[in-house]
Amino acid sequence: MKYLDGFVLAVPNANREVYREFAAKAAEMLKEHGATRVVESWGDDVPEGKRTSFTIATERKEDETAVFSWIEWPSKAVRDVGMKAFMEDPRLRDFPPMPFDGQRMFFGGFEPLVDV
Question: Which of 7, 18, 24, 116 has the least C-beta neighbours within 10 A?
Answer without folding.
Answer: 116
